Amino acid sequence: MKLHELQYTDGSRGKRKRVGRGEGSGWGKNTGTGHKGQRSRGRASRKAPGFEGGQTPLYRRIPKRGFNNRGGIRYTVVNLSDLDRFEDGAIVTPKELIEAGIVKQIENGGIKVLGGGKITKKLTVKANKFSASAEAAIVKAGGQVEAI
Protein backbone atom coordinates (compact mmCIF):
# COMPACT_ATOMS: atom_id res chain seq x y z
CA MET A 1 0.00 0.00 0.00
CA LYS A 2 1.25 3.48 -0.88
CA LEU A 3 0.33 6.87 0.53
CA HIS A 4 -1.76 7.85 -2.49
CA GLU A 5 -3.80 4.64 -2.11
CA LEU A 6 -4.99 5.42 1.45
CA GLN A 7 -8.72 5.97 1.86
CA TYR A 8 -11.06 6.59 4.73
CA THR A 9 -13.22 3.63 5.78
CA ASP A 10 -16.95 3.89 5.19
CA GLY A 11 -18.75 5.76 7.94
CA SER A 12 -15.59 7.09 9.60
CA ARG A 13 -16.23 10.65 8.39
CA GLY A 14 -19.91 11.25 9.10
CA LYS A 15 -21.55 14.51 8.13
CA ARG A 16 -21.75 17.22 10.77
CA LYS A 17 -25.14 17.35 12.47
CA ARG A 18 -26.52 20.81 11.55
CA VAL A 19 -29.12 21.41 14.22
CA GLY A 20 -31.48 24.31 14.82
CA ARG A 21 -32.29 24.80 11.14
CA GLY A 22 -36.01 24.03 11.21
CA GLU A 23 -38.24 21.12 10.33
CA GLY A 24 -36.81 20.59 6.86
CA SER A 25 -33.34 19.78 8.18
CA GLY A 26 -34.42 16.29 9.26
CA TRP A 27 -33.71 16.96 12.93
CA GLY A 28 -37.13 18.41 13.70
CA LYS A 29 -38.34 20.89 16.26
CA ASN A 30 -36.14 19.84 19.20
CA THR A 31 -33.04 19.01 17.13
CA GLY A 32 -32.73 15.51 18.54
CA THR A 33 -32.60 16.45 22.22
CA GLY A 34 -36.15 15.53 23.23
CA HIS A 35 -38.46 17.54 25.47
CA LYS A 36 -37.38 19.70 28.40
CA GLY A 37 -34.85 18.60 31.01
CA GLN A 38 -31.21 19.41 31.55
CA ARG A 39 -29.86 17.68 28.46
CA SER A 40 -32.22 19.55 26.15
CA ARG A 41 -31.14 23.03 27.16
CA GLY A 42 -28.22 24.15 25.07
CA ARG A 43 -24.79 23.53 26.54
CA ALA A 44 -26.16 22.71 30.02
CA SER A 45 -25.58 19.04 29.31
CA ARG A 46 -21.82 19.66 29.50
CA LYS A 47 -21.30 19.84 33.23
CA ALA A 48 -18.24 21.13 35.02
CA PRO A 49 -15.73 18.59 36.35
CA GLY A 50 -16.74 17.55 39.86
CA PHE A 51 -20.42 18.40 39.31
CA GLU A 52 -22.61 15.98 41.26
CA GLY A 53 -26.10 16.75 39.97
CA GLY A 54 -26.68 19.67 42.32
CA GLN A 55 -25.44 17.86 45.43
CA THR A 56 -22.65 19.74 47.18
CA PRO A 57 -19.52 18.41 45.50
CA LEU A 58 -16.88 16.47 47.38
CA TYR A 59 -14.26 19.21 47.15
CA ARG A 60 -16.64 21.54 49.01
CA ARG A 61 -17.81 18.99 51.60
CA ILE A 62 -14.33 18.18 52.88
CA PRO A 63 -12.95 20.72 55.39
CA LYS A 64 -9.96 22.81 54.48
CA ARG A 65 -6.73 22.07 56.33
CA GLY A 66 -3.89 24.46 57.03
CA PHE A 67 -3.07 27.68 55.24
CA ASN A 68 -1.75 28.14 51.72
CA ASN A 69 -0.39 31.60 51.17
CA ARG A 70 -0.80 32.16 47.44
CA GLY A 71 1.42 35.24 47.51
CA GLY A 72 4.05 33.72 49.78
CA ILE A 73 7.66 33.01 48.90
CA ARG A 74 8.63 29.33 48.95
CA TYR A 75 12.21 28.15 49.08
CA THR A 76 13.70 24.89 47.91
CA VAL A 77 15.50 23.59 50.99
CA VAL A 78 19.00 22.07 50.89
CA ASN A 79 20.82 20.81 53.99
CA LEU A 80 24.56 20.91 54.70
CA SER A 81 24.71 17.11 54.52
CA ASP A 82 23.56 17.37 50.86
CA LEU A 83 26.33 19.85 50.06
CA ASP A 84 28.98 17.52 51.49
CA ARG A 85 28.67 15.36 48.31
CA PHE A 86 30.60 17.91 46.24
CA GLU A 87 34.39 17.79 45.87
CA ASP A 88 36.63 19.96 48.04
CA GLY A 89 36.92 23.50 46.64
CA ALA A 90 33.86 23.26 44.38
CA ILE A 91 31.55 26.17 43.60
CA VAL A 92 27.97 25.13 44.37
CA THR A 93 25.20 27.01 42.51
CA PRO A 94 21.53 26.15 41.93
CA LYS A 95 22.48 24.77 38.50
CA GLU A 96 25.01 22.37 40.05
CA LEU A 97 22.42 21.21 42.61
CA ILE A 98 20.01 20.26 39.81
CA GLU A 99 22.73 18.49 37.81
CA ALA A 100 23.81 16.51 40.89
CA GLY A 101 20.20 15.41 41.47
CA ILE A 102 19.98 16.97 44.91
CA VAL A 103 17.18 19.31 43.78
CA LYS A 104 14.54 18.47 41.16
CA GLN A 105 13.11 21.95 40.65
CA ILE A 106 13.59 25.35 42.22
CA GLU A 107 10.64 27.11 43.90
CA ASN A 108 9.82 30.78 43.28
CA GLY A 109 12.02 32.05 46.14
CA GLY A 110 15.10 30.08 45.10
CA ILE A 111 17.41 27.91 47.22
CA LYS A 112 17.72 28.14 51.00
CA VAL A 113 20.58 26.34 52.73
CA LEU A 114 19.78 25.00 56.19
CA GLY A 115 22.15 23.73 58.88
CA GLY A 116 21.05 20.08 58.90
CA GLY A 117 24.00 17.69 59.09
CA LYS A 118 27.72 18.45 58.94
CA ILE A 119 29.96 19.86 56.25
CA THR A 120 33.61 18.83 56.09
CA LYS A 121 34.67 20.30 52.73
CA LYS A 122 35.71 23.79 51.74
CA LEU A 123 32.95 24.97 49.38
CA THR A 124 31.82 28.22 47.83
CA VAL A 125 28.04 28.11 48.11
CA LYS A 126 25.84 30.46 46.09
CA ALA A 127 22.18 30.46 47.16
CA ASN A 128 19.30 32.87 47.73
CA LYS A 129 19.17 32.46 51.52
CA PHE A 130 21.13 30.85 54.35
CA SER A 131 20.19 30.02 57.89
CA ALA A 132 22.54 31.43 60.53
CA SER A 133 23.77 27.97 61.53
CA ALA A 134 24.41 26.94 57.92
CA GLU A 135 26.36 30.12 57.18
CA ALA A 136 28.47 29.66 60.32
CA ALA A 137 29.21 25.99 59.50
CA ILE A 138 30.28 26.74 55.90
CA VAL A 139 32.60 29.55 57.02
CA LYS A 140 33.99 27.37 59.84
CA ALA A 141 34.84 24.64 57.31
CA GLY A 142 36.84 27.21 55.32
CA GLY A 143 34.25 27.88 52.64
CA GLN A 144 32.52 31.00 51.41
CA VAL A 145 28.87 32.07 51.38
CA GLU A 146 27.42 34.20 48.56
CA ALA A 147 23.80 35.38 48.46
CA ILE A 148 22.43 35.52 44.91
Sheet with most strands: strand arrangement = 1-3-5
CATH architecture of the largest domain: Ribosomal Protein L15, Chain: K, domain 2
Major beta sheet summary: 3 strands, parallel
> Which regions contain 5 or more consecutive residues with pLDDT less than 50?
none
Tell me what the structure shows.
Helices cover 16% and strands 14% of the residues. The chain has 2 domains: 23-61, no CATH class; 76-147, Ribosomal Protein L15, Chain: K, domain 2, CATH 3.100.10.10. The strands form 2 sheets. A 3-stranded parallel sheet has the order 1-3-5. A 3-stranded parallel sheet has the order 2-4-6. With 148 residues, the protein is an alpha/beta fold. The longest helix has 9 residues, at 132-140. The relative contact order is 0.12.
What's a quick, concise take on this entry?
Helix content is 16%, strand content 14%.
List keywords for this structure.
single chain; 148 residues; alpha/beta; Ribosomal Protein L15, Chain: K, domain 2; 3-stranded parallel β-sheet; 16% helix
